[in-house]
Write a structure and sequence with these properties.
One of its GO terms (biological process) is translation. GO terms for molecular function: 5S rRNA binding; structural constituent of ribosome. Part of the 50S ribosomal subunit; part of the 5S rRNA/L5/L18/L25 subcomplex. Contacts the 5S rRNA. Binds to the 5S rRNA independently of L5 and L18. This is Large ribosomal subunit protein bL25. The chain is mainly β and 215 residues long. It is built from three helices and 13 strands; from the N terminus they run E-H-E-E-H-E-E-E-E-H-E-E-E-E-E-E. Strands 1-3-2-6-5-4 form a six-stranded mixed beta barrel. Strands 10-7-9-12 form a four-stranded mixed beta sheet, with no helix packed on it. Strands 8-13-11 form a three-stranded antiparallel beta sheet, with no helix packed on it. A hairpin with a 6-residue loop joins strand 5 and strand 6. The longest helix is centred in the N-terminal third of the chain and has 9 residues. It is elongated, with a radius of gyration of 29 Å.
């Protein structure tokens, strides 16, 4: 798991819609909905500060939580959230209800290690990250905190593909039809040889003066 599981207190909301959501926010709470696991959606209201700190604390979308709705505890995974475009505070959250065998698609961060053991980087190469996150399909109770890419032995010109990454059991990339690239080791601009300036074409010789007219 990416972060420690946590619990949020919530109240059930009888009314839904934009007007109801605005009223919830005026009362210092965040409107949210719990859906999935073949059960009807449940509209709830959460404490604003609790949600704010969880969203901005990192790992929000990859950590299972328990929501206590008026005494009933529901296990969920945050699936989406909306922030105010100006003030950056949470305005709505969607939670997926987690059942015994629930599997999910989730974006997992990519971490790179052992840059100091990469001959290519030592010689001035640059780590070019193609994917900072990779979407995986996995059991909801086995979401990895991150995947690790080991750069030991990589040379300039090398590409690191998903097949080179050790994944936990049950974790599979959503993209399954190709061995996609996660990163490359590129040569830096300073390593590129200077290209010679093209030699200017010689000025055409002046045309020979016309022969003097015969008198």
């Amino acid at each position: 798991m990416s972060h420690e599981a946590y619990e949020l207190k919530a109240e059930a909301r009888e009314q839904v819609g934009k007007g109801s959501a605005r009223a919830v926010r005026r009362n210092g709470k965040v409107p949210a909905v719990i859906y999935g696991d073949k059960q009807p959606p449940l509209a709830i209201a959460l404490n604003y500060k609790d949600v704010f700190y969880k969203i901005h604390g990192g790992g929000f979308l990859t950590t299972i939580a328990t929501i206590d709705v008026d005494g009933k505890k529901i296990q969920v995974l945050p699936k989406d959230f909306q922030l105010d475009p100006v003030k950056d505070f949470p305005v709505h959250v969607d939670f997926l209800r987690i059942g015994k065998d629930t599997e999910v698609n989730v974006d997992v961060p990519v971490h790179f290690i052992n840059e100091e053991k990469s001959p290519g980087i030592k010689r001035g190469g640059v780590l070019n990250i193609v994917r900072h996150e990779v979407e995986f399909h996995c059991p909801a109770n086995a979401i990895p905190e991150f995947i690790t890419v080991d750069l030991t032995g990589t040379e300039i010109g090398d590409s690191i593909h998903i097949s080179a990454v050790a994944l936990p059991a049950g974790v599979k990339p959503v993209i399954s039809d190709r061995d996609f690239t996660i990163a490359t080791i590129a040569g830096s601009a300073a390593m590129k040889p200077e290209t010679e300036e093209p030699t200017e074409a010689a000025e055409p010789e002046a045309a020979a003066a016309p022969a003097a007219e015969e008198k």
